[in-house]
Amino acid sequence: xxxxxxxxxxxxxxxxxxxxxxxxxxxxxxxxxxxxxxxxxxxxxxxxxxxxxxxxxxxxxxxxxxxxxxxxxxxxxxxxxxxxxxxxxxxxxxxxxxxxxxxxxxxxxxxxxxxxxxxxxxxxxxxxxxxxxxxxxxxxxxxxxxxxxxxxxxxxxxxx
Length: 160
Description:
Elements: H1 41-72, H2 79-106, H3 111-120, H4 124-144, E1 149-150, E2 153-154
Antiparallel strand pairs: 1-2
Helix pairs in contact: 1-2, 1-4, 2-3, 2-4
């Protein structure tokens, strides 16, 4: 009888718990990279921390956008106020880039996806949509590992 080659999906899964095509979808395995599927607490903690930053970026984005519209509709505002709102918006965009690229990397995204995510931060409505999509992906990854996720992300004390 011939031996089954290692690439054959009908071969029994390896005993080390590594996801393979043969055991994909079974309890305890996840479509997310190693470290997110319940294997590595440090990887899950990095996802939870990055998700917390993304949620803060979402709130900051909504706040600065509301502030910009409120000051724009106020009629005559001082040039100093306009400059302050623009500076605040630039700070929020930089924070968004850091948060989104960090979460993309924590979820095992490629360099290309991190670059696209970073570029999307400079498009006002698109950045908010991408922020929400990344947050949803992080929530699914954490919940797949049995971590409870609330409104502002996972409870970080679960990782200690």
